[in-house]
DNA sequence: TCATTAAATTGGTATAGACAACTATACTTT
DNA sequence: AAAGTATAGTTGTCTATACCAATTTAATGA
């Protein structure tokens, strides 16, 4: 388990050992670990060295320490999922609703100034422009316009837009989505939105703009959405 | 700089000192720090205690260590800051504006149903209720109501609310903020908001609710804010 | 039996020292 | 001039010890 003659640091060996015990469920979430003093005596190493191993795993979130009680295997954080990047489709499923789309238009157009800027393209480079109404349980929730670099998704067809665009990009094209910069602001519906979202004049909407990038930093898409304020509330989990 | 008699751990005091030196550019990115032994001798503390402070900052990404060379101030990752949890104060500074507050009320009140639920308290447990107008360059940006468990911040006074509440909680109380669940929605201003934000009737506002937790999971605060839609856009970086 | 007190256990902080591994520099040898 | 060598300074690892603070457990007393 621990080899003092190894060039590998002792704390690192212990760290790896504990990590694998957690991995293969020898140590289960909620379990109490042997005390630091016990490890030290058992392995004939200093308590401070044990602490160094455990501290690293605590920082990673695999273990938790409680003064006077002991060190425990951390419970898995399901919460983590919420903090990530979710599509409208996934989002609605989580909320227990049935997502659907109505395609308004599907065109290959030259990128105008703002779109070109967000996708790091030269102006007038061809991009797909997809306008959709997003429905949840058949109720209009949002009006969405997606701009996506044509050279990244060459085989894009109208049929694909009927389901989840993200699923297609990740699973069929094998592109890895990295991060997104998203902005949110409030506004009053304009006429176009009002017609599609079926709301009163003067009703508030939540405007969301999202700029999505691949893992390598290439801009993938630029999305502008208008959500009905009376039906949609955006929630996110922010970690330090 | 370091007070050995303070109940605050020495490594924590040094950590805070270094953090603030980096904050106010006394230590600039790329700078070489004095060696660990030098700090130990200078402050008359153990080298291991110095290491504990530095290790924490390395884990946070503020410092980097190179064996045989020394410890350096890390290059700033601006993006990182945006993705994390930021206070209004920090947020406005990043945007190059001057943040300020107008205190409307500061009371110790019994927690009502929703507040108690969010703070995991029994109903009618005393909580601080702080109402403030948030200003940026002297322009009203938001109306904010903070509810915070009274037993967590016993010494809270009106004076503290004049500056940054987060700074006080982290640096003076030594509480570690973990994560926050934040929701955003759009609405039309009500009368109270209209009076304080100085906007037209029927103007849109961005309603933000935030539930902040400590690292150990204890609920710290519940905040309701109404931001002027014409002046404020919320931006966040979302990582997979 | 129940509540109180005391002791034991646990993680948290801190010290002092030692040696290893690595880097940069100055100096010596080839 | 180039290569090798010594040296001082840096972080990395590890030990042994000590005391503190929070919690649990055992002993005690009414």
UniProtKB/TrEMBL annotation, chains A, B:
Any one GO MF annotation of this record: DNA binding
Coiled coil ranges: none
Family annotation (InterPro entries): Bact_HTH_transcr_reg (IPR050679), Chorismate_lyase_/UTRA_dom_sf (IPR028978), Tscrpt_reg_HTH_GntR (IPR000524), UTRA (IPR011663), WH-like_DNA-bd_sf (IPR036388), WH_DNA-bd_sf (IPR036390)
PROSITE patterns on file: HTH_GNTR (PS50949)
UniProtKB keywords: DNA-binding, Transcription, Transcription regulation
Keyword Transcription regulation annotated: yes
UniProt domain HTH gntR-type: residue ranges: 8-76
Name the UniProt record assigns to this protein: Phosphonate metabolism transcriptional regulator PhnF
């Amino acid at each position: 388990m621990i080899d003092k003659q190894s060039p590998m640091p002792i704390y690192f060996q212990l760290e790896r050992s504990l990590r694998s015990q957690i991995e293969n469920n020898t140590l289960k979430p909620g379990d109490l670990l042997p005390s630091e003093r016990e490890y030290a005596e058992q392995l004939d190493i200093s308590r401070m060295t044990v602490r160094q191993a455990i501290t690293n795993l605590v920082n990673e979130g695999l273990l938790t320490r409680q003064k006077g009680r002991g060190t425990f295997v951390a419970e898995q954080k399901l919460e983590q999922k919420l903090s990530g990047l979710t599509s409208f489709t996934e989002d609605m499923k989580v909320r227990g609703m049935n997502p659907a789309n109505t395609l308004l238009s599907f065109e290959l157009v030259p990128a105008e100034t703002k779109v070109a800027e967000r996708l790091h393209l030269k102006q007038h480079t061809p991009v797909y422009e997809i306008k959709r109404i997003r429905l949840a349980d058949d109720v209009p929730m949002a009006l969405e316009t997606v701009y996506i670099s044509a050279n990244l998704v060459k085989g894009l067809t109208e049929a694909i837009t009927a389901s989840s665009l993200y699923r297609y990009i990740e699973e069929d094209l094998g592109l890895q989505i990295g991060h997104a910069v998203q902005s949110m602001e409030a506004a009053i519906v304009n006429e176009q939105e009002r017609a599609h979202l079926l709301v009163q004049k003067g009703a508030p909407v939540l405007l969301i703009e999202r700029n999505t990038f691949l893992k390598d930093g290439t801009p993938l898409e630029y999305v502008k959405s208008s959500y009905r304020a009376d039906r949609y509330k955006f929630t996110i989990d922010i970690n330090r």
